[in-house]
Amino acid sequence: MNDALDVAIRLVVVFAVFMVLPLVIGQTEHKVMAHMQGRLGPMYAGGFHGWAQLVADGVKFAQKEDVVPAAADRRIFQLAPAVALLPYLLVLVAVPIGPSEGAVGQVVDAGIFFVLAVMGVGVLGSLMAGWASANKFSLLGGLRTAAQLLAYELPMLLAAASVAMAAGTVSLPGILNAFHWWWLPWQIVGALVFFIAGLAELQRPPFDMPVADSEIIFGAYTEYTGLRFALFLLAEYAGIVVLCGLTTVLFLGGWHGPFGADGLGWVWTLLKTAVLAFVVIWLRVSYPRLREDQLQKLAWTTLIPLALAQIALTGIVKVAIS
Amino acid sequence: MPEPTVRQMPVLAADYFHSYSVVGLLAVIGVLFVAVAFGAGRLLRPVVPTPEKLLTYECGVDPVGEGWAHTQVRYYVYAFLYVIFAVDSIFLFPWATVFAAPGYGATTLVEMFIFLGFLAVGLLYAWKKGVLEWT
């Protein structure tokens, strides 16, 4: 009975994190982008600096008519947002936030492997949406998504493999237990490759060619309205949480901090994740969109060679010190 | 020594199934969440379809031709490349957990460079063939 209660509490916490953190990041994005562009951003909803803007958006989305185009593949079209969203929920359960045994939703032995595999499923949602909409712009967006996934999954995988080599395990808590501060400079190239490839998988600017509004309206999501559209947006922000959390755990030492690792471990994890999320927003404001051929070129001719070099470096150092 | 292995096996298997059953439970919660959201949405929103609304949206003008249009798929070669590389990379993970274990060391390191060499040569070949050029 106790075990069941324990599991239930964990699941509720994971679900709450999944519901709340993406909204926090979304609201931060509203405000940070606005201030970087010399605007105020939302100021009205909720009174204090527009804190309830996303709640208001949610209420609006829930009341909007749900239009499924007559030409669309109805079932697939309606299912796509769920397929895009749920994988990120499943990934969150495996991300450890503190040093103790219990500070993780559930220890999954396959760790990195599980996480990368499940994250890959999320992109299927975009593909389903792009194909099922029966819209030329959606189709183009879906195909661009596919190309982007193919190009960036690989450097991400290789960079993650480098960490697994360094730690000698694929379990996420195991990696954190093996972490030392000097992994930071040692794995820095892998970290950059992982983070950039992750951004590209989330289709965040400057890698937002699949949803480029000036060319293909909103890519695979063109035909969506109301709640289903909102779920796609939620998936994007949940993706930011997951990417930043994983980068923190794999490359930045997770709950390790200069002091107070035992009691305050989870604060370090959240802090690092928040800083990375800020960087994600910052990049959106700073960089123009990459063209499709530049996207592919960056992945195949820069990130993959860099990731391979990182693996070689990791291998040499690891054998040298053991 | 087969005996300790035999004794540990059920425990390991139980852990394994426990962790994935928790993941499965979370998946059920996620599906429920989506179902409830869609169900609630159905109750809250208006349903006033008109033929114009159900038309495919293409910048406001009536769509020309079908939605599932012909398009030039330039990246099917990338797809091949990806499959080749990804299948290779999968093998890195089990190897990564043991390559520095006592008794391996230099041998596995040489193997790693052979492996990386294969990948690099493959990439260079694709590059030289012009596969990585978009146009």
Report on this structure:
Chain A: It is a multi-pass membrane protein. Chain A: Its main location: membrane. Chain A: Pfam families: NADHdh (PF00146). The complex is a heterodimer of chains A (about 325) and B (about 140). Helices cover about 70% and strands about 0% of the residues of chain A. Chain A has about 325 residues and is mostly helical. Chain A has one domain (about 1-320). Chain A starts with a helix and ends with a helix. With about 140 residues, chain B is mostly helical. Chain B has 2 domains: about 1-65; about 70-135, Methane Monooxygenase Hydroxylase, Chain G, domain 1 (Up-down Bundle), CATH 1.20.58. At the A-B interface, α1, α3, α4, α5 and α10 of A face α1, α2, α3 and α4 of B.
**Rg calc of chain A:** 20 Å
Order of helices and strands of chain A: HHHHHHHHHHHH
Q: Averaging pLDDT over every residue of chain B, what do you get? A: 77
Assembly level: heterodimer
Note the overall shape of chain B: flat
- Approximate helicity band of chain A: over 70%
Extended strand count of chain A: 0
Helix content of chain B: 55-70%
Query: In DSSP terms, counting alpha (H) and pi (I) runs of 4 or more, how many helices of chain B?
Result: 4
Largest sheet of chain A: none
Poorly predicted runs of 5 or more residues of chain A: none
